[in-house]
Amino acid sequence: MIHKFKQGDDYILLDVNSGAVHIIDEVTFKILDDFDGTNDEEILSKYSSGDTAEILSELHELIEAGELFAGEIDVPPTFASRGVIKSLCLMVAQDCNLRCKYCFGEGGSFGHRAVMSEEVGRAAVDFIIKNSGIRKHCEIDFFGGEPLINFRTVKAVTEYVRQREQDTGKIFKLTLTTNGILLDEKISAWLNENNISVVLSLDGRKEIHDAMRPDISGRGSYDRVLKNFKRFVDSRGGENYYLRGTYTKKNLDFTADVLSVYESGFDILSIEPVVLKDSPLALTKEDLPRIRQEYDRLAEIYLEHRRTGRGFFFFHFNVDLSNGPCVAKRLSGCGAGHEYFAVAENGDLYPCHQFVGREKYRLGNIFDGVEENSRHWLKYFRQSHVLNKPKCRECWAKFFCSGGCQANNDLFNGEIREPYEIGCEIQKKRLEAAIYVQAKISE
Prior knowledge:
The protein is α/β, with parallel strands linked by helices and 443 residues long. 38% of the residues lie in helices and 16% in strands. It is built from 16 helices and 15 strands. The strands form two sheets. Strands 4, 5, 6, 7, 8, 9, 10, 11, 12, 13, 14 and 15 form a twelve-stranded mixed β-sheet that branches. The chain has a three-stranded antiparallel β-sheet with strand order 1-2-3. The longest helix has 22 residues, at 421-442. The mean pLDDT is 94.
């Protein structure tokens, strides 16, 4: 399986199963419409270019090197067994001090407003230690809502994690996602002291951010959070953070938002497409041509910034074309529902944070574990990799997107193995732009 496309003035070839990427010329691009590795005579008779024989020789060299028409990838035997839990998302606050217009969690409440107790938080730590087997490295993400509303539990859980690391030899990576309203100097200092990675939510330009992320009273939040974010990032030397935004139908010119964030002093960032149903902010098929154009624009601006010494890290352009994820990761993505779980404020277990409140997917709780009548979900999620998703199996992007977000698939299609179509189309365009960017950088 191969995928070829034109980006800017370049012709690009991806060998899907090996992940090898090649910048090729226009003649080779056309020849690959017909060449299958065995039909040289047919190609020589059809294409009269004097370079055809040389092109065929080079293509055969790529085949011999395993970088063209590589064989299919098999499912690793480990997928037949139960996975060990590698990470948890703790919903430490199912409440929020903002009312973002596109929030998938019902204003941060996920159905009801409450905060996680210290007891539940500590039990979650014990749960992941018990179920992580011999795995040494584990992860916990403090999430919400807005987790800093319940800073007391964040602190208590962190203290308990460090204690349990000493007891067990485990090493935990801790992450916290915040809207920045409460990110004052005292909290910033504590986050730094405890080596907690932080995801900062900022949607770009002031007018966009304020329209999408007002507070409870309806006031914009941009000025307050920008001030807090700048101070926080400076306090840790511009490292160990990640700034994330969201674009909707209202800002399909999202390159302007990426540049606004960069020019405000942040150089580790991304912007994600909103995922909504039945909303004026939702992305539709009619928006796809405009979105594709915008990724083309962002790719060229990104490369120009690098060429002029003003480069920044854009998450979705950071595709490793030489030493990418292992096969298991390429097949299953985030591991939701079998290696990654979310813990609701009351201790209930769900496949991930976006499933919280969808009672069909409630798995059990951290005190008693996965309930017997929910254990089938663990197997179903573990086996819901790209090779078991019919539409994904034949898609060129399958080993980069790993079948898309299971929660989004369920939201739109009621089935985690049925891909969310608009998300797929956006992902494929974004991947083409990323492959192009990395190929140009390597070149």
